[in-house]
Amino acid sequence: MSDLFLRNGEWIVDDNIDPAAVSLQLVDLTDGSWTLEDPSGFIDLVTGISIDANGLHTIPFNAITPGSNDYRNYNGANFTGPRWYRPLTISGVRVTSDDSIAIHTYVEHGTPALAFASNVTHGICLDPTSTVISSIEMIGGGYTRSGGTTPIYMVGNFAASNSVATSGDNKALCSHILYGREGHQGVTAIRNSDGRATATSRIIGQITTGIDLYEVVAIGTQLDGTTITGGADEKFYFKRRILILNP
After folding, report:
1. Lowest pLDDT segment from 78-82, 116-120, 178-182
2. Is residue 56 packed enough to be buried (19+ CB in 10 Å), middle (13-18) or exposed (0-12)?
3. Are the CB atoms for 211 and 85 separated by under 8 Å?
């Protein structure tokens, strides 16, 4: 049976897929395919988000105070921070929790004008509009940043039930496998500076059969109670590659 996949911007029918030939695709939150869900009103919609010629997003924030544990997008009960989502499709076919897929996320961060302690992630999830972390069930790659005037960045794999498992570089290619119905499996973060893989496994348990999957970009606070000053922003760049591994 032939497979349909994307190579250099064109869909190709082939019996022998070379994964290396499947190009990373730029994530562009301004291209009209994404829906913003922002229960707590983080995003400054008056200023609006933007993306430059290199694919670097600038996300402006409203003042958010006081802080809340629900703004953290991992290891808690609820998440009410912003997320952009769209149906996960490959060659026009809706991907569900019955499929086995491989996801590669390439991430870089920029330098915000005014930073706060954050987690910024790209990946897949079950329910992008939920405010309950165990229902969202997100896994992917991204970065975490400390607060202060000289923030420390760490990049790596992410799962909603764990923190970001990180390496010490400022960019990385993160790899993940979703085994159909058997749970999300975060595999490794490839460190850009030396090319070595770090062991950053992230696992979420079994998921319900036949659930439509979504691609998602989410921004949460790194710490409980983090506040956000008006005028703060986030700058990031994501590329992604998704392959179906069904027999």
Report:
1. 178-182
2. middle
3. no
Give the pair of three-digit tokens for residue 111: 């330098």
Q: Any residues with CB less than 8 A from the CB of 156 and at least 6 apart, and which?
A: 141, 142, 143, 164, 165, 166, 167, 172, 174, 189, 198, 200
In the chain, the amino acid numbered 163 is S
* Domains with residue ranges and CATH for the chain: 26-244 (2.60.120)
pTM of the model: 0.83
Confidence of residue 127 (pLDDT cuts 50, 70, 90): very high
